[in-house]
Amino acid sequence: MDTKIVECVPNISEGRNKETVKKCAEAVSSVPGVTLLNCTSDSDHNRSVLTFIGSPEGVVEAAVALCRTASRLIDLTKHKGEHPRMGAVDVIPFIPVKNVTMDEAVEISRNVGKRIFEEAGIPVYLYENSASAGHRRNLADVRRGQFEGLKEKTLLPDWQPDFGTGFHKTAGISIVGAREFLIAFNINLSTSDVDIAKKIAKVIRQSGGGLSCVKALGIMLHNRNIAQVSINMTDYKVTPLYRVVELVRAEARRWGVTVTGTELIGLSPMKALIDAAEYYLQLEDFNYSAQVFENHLL
Asked: Are 182 and 99 in contact, with CB atoms under 8 Å apart?
């Protein structure tokens, strides 16, 4: 029987308390059939991204265990950070990797959403391919108002949670769904003027008339005193990494600033990085399948 593999990339609203992040990671890694691949924290965002894979049954148990742990340890009434957030475990996406269809991933997400409310007491919104209505598909729309706006939002007829009612007084609402692979990618600028980063983000994101499959925000990294364009790339095959970098570089020049570095949050498909290498090296007649050594080891 072919092995089924699902990826889960939950974002938790804690990036400063290392002990809390550690306990959340342990809640995931302790589940049989699950492998924790990565845990990345950022103190300015005050957020951590966990990446794990496993069997459908395993990722369900790990996601629910994570929510039970986070609901005890993370208090959003005391939380401050640059990244928008609505829940202690803010977003929980499931991505089909091997021998799993998107429909199966949607079913997994709905199962998890139901159990999160039943076992952790956290209401849930479903988003992306799991959304129960069109206006709930886009993460930014679901999260608008953030934790502080939940009291008013959950009273609106169009914004009742898919599972549960109201919101958890300290853990908020979690957003759960199935989607394609996403690359979280940040670009740092040589300025402390966050308004420049916000203007660049508006230009490059799809909703502002920019690049397809790109979402972006301008934020301030107080620890480093620099502005950052924080980006989610929902399909690198449509808009590759290098195109985003070059557009940000061009827009930054308008304001007399430069790109000082980039950050990859969590994991990326190798093909996305190879595409960038091909572009910057100006490789001619490059054959990804034949000329990348690791492809011959699979």
From this structure: no
Cα→Cα distances 117→51, 114, 128, 159, 162, Å: 22, 6, 19, 16, 10
Q: Provide the pLDDT confidence category of residue 296 given band limits of 50, 70 and 90.
A: confident
Q: Are residues 36 and 167 in the same domain?
A: yes
- Asked if residue 48 and residue 102 are part of one domain, the reply reads yes
pLDDT score, position 2: 82
Total count of domains within the chain: 2
Catalytic residues: 83
Mapped onto helix, strand or coil, the DSSP state of residue 129 is: coil
Q: How far apart are CA 49 and CA 36, in angstroms?
A: 11
pLDDT reading at 297 higher than 90: no
**Token code pair at residue 242:** 């290098």
Mean pLDDT, the chain, rounded, equals 95
Q: Do residues 109 and 212 both lie within one domain?
A: no
Pairing of the two strands 89-98 and 174-178: parallel
CA diameter of the chain: 58
Strand partners for 228: 188, 219
Residue-by-residue DSSP string for 157-178:
GGG--SBSSS-BTTTB-EEEEE
Strands of the sheet with 259-265, listed across from one edge: 214-221, 226-233, 183-189, 259-265
Residue 116 is part of a domain; what is its CATH number? 3.30.990.10
C-alpha 116/C-alpha 164 separation (Å) is 9
Let me know: does 215 contact 232? Beta carbons within 8 Å.
Answer: yes
**Rg of the chain, C-alpha, whole Å:** 19
Domain that holds residue 203: 183-296
Tell the residue number behind the tokens 């599972």, with chain if given. 163
What is the pLDDT at residue 298? 59
pLDDT-above-90 percentage for the chain: 96
- The answer to whether 98 touches 182, Cβ cutoff 8 Å, is no
- Give the amino acid at 230: S
